[in-house]
Automatic annotation (TrEMBL):
Protein's name in the database: FusB/FusC family EF-G-binding protein
Domain Elongation factor G-binding protein C-terminal treble-clef zinc-finger as annotated: residue spans: 100-194
Elongation factor G-binding protein N-terminal domain: residues covered: 3-85
A Pfam match: EF-G-binding_N
Signal sequence extent: none
Record InterPro entries: EF-G-binding_C (IPR032330), EF-G-binding_N (IPR010841), EF-G_N_sf (IPR038344)
Organism: Ureibacillus aquaedulcis
Length: 210
């Protein structure tokens, strides 16, 4: 049944908005057809279809001419998105054993079909936690997060957004020494997930922190 990941769904969402924008701004059929062909090429390069029915599910994208049609299309295709497997509280605590008073987010509040990675901020300690799956294994990083109160480019989703600096401390080669690695990421992790349509950028980000 599933044939899309959350990041692929976000990618298709962007392409659908591109189609809508084209119909809104142009009446030239050649322009519309050119954008439709480009979107088809982009989708084929992003998603591997195992059967023709899966391709047919996305076909209505090429006729989206109103916001209502866009919303209906996105609602219809969302059932084919494999959700991020919700971790248990025990699994999360095991990821961060040094944090004896780990404050967990309300997991029931997340839309797992629009979540490529789980993240939350403990405002009491200014620690930001990032949890993801790699090769089926649950992994996590945590660091101190400083709001910058400025708009910049997020290292995870590559979009312009309100960003802050995430700094992760790692033990150095000499005893008692630490090195810090970090970069600017979105303050709003839900918005970051919605903007994330290329998981390679996220993977590179977390690997650079380790």
């Amino acid at each position: 049944m599933y044939f899309m990941t959350p990041e692929q769904y976000q990618f298709v969402k962007k392409q659908a908005k591109k189609i809508l924008n084209t119909y809104t701004t142009s009446k030239d059929q050649k322009v519309i057809q050119a954008i439709q062909a480009l979107v088809q090429e982009e989708i084929d390069g992003k998603i591997t279809f195992l059967e023709i029915q899966q391709q047919l599910v996305l076909q209505p994208i090429f006729d989206i001419q109103s916001k209502e049609q866009l919303e209906l299309f996105l609602k219809e295709i969302k059932q084919y998105v494999e959700p991020f497997k919700q971790p248990t509280e025990a699994e999360l605590k095991k990821l961060f054993p040094k944090d004896k008073k780990l404050k967990l987010p309300k997991l029931e509040m997340f839309d797992w079909q629009e979540t490529s990675y789980l993240s939350w901020l403990d405002s009491g300690t200014n620690r930001k936690y990032i949890v993801y799956r790699e090769d089926g294994n649950l992994k996590g990083v945590r660091g101190t997060f400083s709001n910058s109160a400025k708009v910049g480019i997020c290292s995870v989703c590559n979009q312009h957004a309100k960003v802050g600096m995430l700094l992760v401390a790692k033990k150095g080669t000499d005893m008692g020494t630490y090195t810090k690695k970090g970069n600017y990421i979105c303050e709003d992790s839900a918005a970051c997930n919605e903007a994330l349509s290329d998981l390679d950028k996220f993977t590179n980000f977390v690997h650079n922190l380790n």
